[in-house]
Every structure is written in structure tokens, then in C-alpha cells.
Specification:
Layout: H1 14-22, E1 30-34, E2 41-43, H2 44-58, H3 68-77, H4 82-85, H5 93-98, H6 100-111, H7 118-131, H8 135-153, H9 158-163, H10 167-174, H11 177-180, H12 182-197
Antiparallel strand pairs: 1-2
Helix pairs in contact: 2-3, 2-8, 3-7, 3-8, 7-8
């Protein structure tokens, strides 16, 4: 998005206010999934809220080495880069690879609007999530992966059908869930196979 915003003076809070107004643009980034029971596509800000509440709701099922407060923070910042880079479907692997540098530049620009120490804190949250190497990031990635699956399972496979997604694509991007929560993955896999039988997945 290229809309330039006015800079209003708020003393020591000026940079924070500017950042908050800039991230309002995330409300205009559309995703592929439609809101359940609606013809409207969800936006990335709505997804981030859903992700954060999901983290709170799934907290009792996280391992002891997961800090749910940090996962919630990851949920709230993980897609802010889409303001500059846009949303790319998780199953479009070539597009995801192509956009990586653009997302990294977006993270530097957007989180750089904040003063220290918030600048580094937000940037490190995003980098940890993207790397996916920590227990917190893996739990966050699990939630981010299951939400669109759950929405499709409750919405007639809407985004899968509209984008020609195959069962093996979903499993290929989500099978790591079995390492984090085997029971959840067992149920998901059963529902995915049922979805394929219904024609929601290729």
C-alpha cells in the first residue's frame, strides 16, 4: 500500500502513533478464506485476531516449554509484513519463496517505524516466527496452519475448491502438527480425508 499518512505530533509517542496508523492498512489485505456464513473474504487483521485468541484457547494443550504470551505476540505481528508484500497462499510454494525478500524488507520498514526497544522486540518476534525453530514458533505455526483448515472444514472447503487445492498439498504443509500434537493431527487427517471424499479437495 502506498497511501502516505500525515505525521501528527504526539511528543514521545509520535513514532508509536505513526506505527499504529500504518498497521491499520492490514485491515485491507484480503485472504483467500471467506468468513464462515458470509460471502466476504476475511482480512489479515481479522486472521491475526483469530490466531491470537486461538493461542489463548489452545494454551492448555501446549507443552511446558511454550510461552503462550509470546505466541500471542507472534500471532499479532506475524502478518504485518503483508501491508507491503501482500498475502500469498500457503500452498503456493514458489510464490512464497519469491516473496521472502520482500517480506524481510517489509519487516525492516514497518517495525522500524517504532522506537527502541519496541522496534527490535517486534522484529525479533517476526523473525523467530518465520524461522520456526523454537517451541514458541512451532506452536504458533501449528495454529496458523490449522485455522484455515478448520475454516474450510466448516465452510464447505471454500478456499480449497476455489483454488484447486489437493489433499496432498494440505498434508504436506500441515503434517508437522503430528510432532506437536499427535491427537489433533489424527483428527485433522481424518477430517481432511472426509473432505476429499466430499470433493472439497482434489
Amino acid at each position: 500500500m502506498s497511501l502516505a499518512l500525515p505525521t501528527l505530533e504526539f511528543g514521545a509517542l509520535t513514532e508509536v502513533v505513526g506505527f499504529l496508523m500504518e498497521i491499520d492498512k492490514l485491515k485491507s489485505v484480503q485472504r483467500r478464506s471467506k468468513i464462515i456464513g458470509s460471502s466476504r473474504h476475511e482480512d489479515s487483521a481479522e486472521h491475526s485476531w483469530h490466531f491470537a485468541v486461538a493461542a489463548m484457547s489452545l494454551a492448555p494443550y501446549a507443552s511446558q516449554d511454550v510461552d503462550i504470551q509470546r505466541v500471542i505476540q507472534m500471532a499479532l505481528v506475524h502478518d504485518i509484513v503483508e501491508i507491503d508484500a501482500g498475502d500469498v497462499m500457503v500452498y503456493d510454494l514458489s510464490a512464497r519463496e519469491a516473496i521472502q525478500a520482500q517480506e524481510e524488507a517489509a519487516a525492516v520498514r514497518l517495525f522500524g517505524l517504532l522506537p527502541e526497544p519496541q522496534h527490535q522486540h517486534f522484529l525479533q518476534l517476526w523473525q523467530e516466527y518465520e524461522a520456526g525453530d523454537t517451541a514458541n514458533a512451532r506452536f504458533a505455526l501449528m495454529i496458523d496452519r490449522i485455522l484455515p483448515i478448520l475454516m474450510n472444514l466448516h465452510n464447505g472447503g471454500q478456499s480449497w475448491v476455489e483454488n484447486g487445492i489437493r489433499l496432498e498439498q494440505v498434508i504436506g504443509r500441515a503434517s508437522f502438527i503430528a510432532e506437536i500434537n499427535p491427537e489433533l493431527w489424527r483428527y485433522l487427517k481424518d477430517h481432511l480425508e472426509t473432505a476429499q471424499a466430499k470433493g472439497w479437495l482434489g
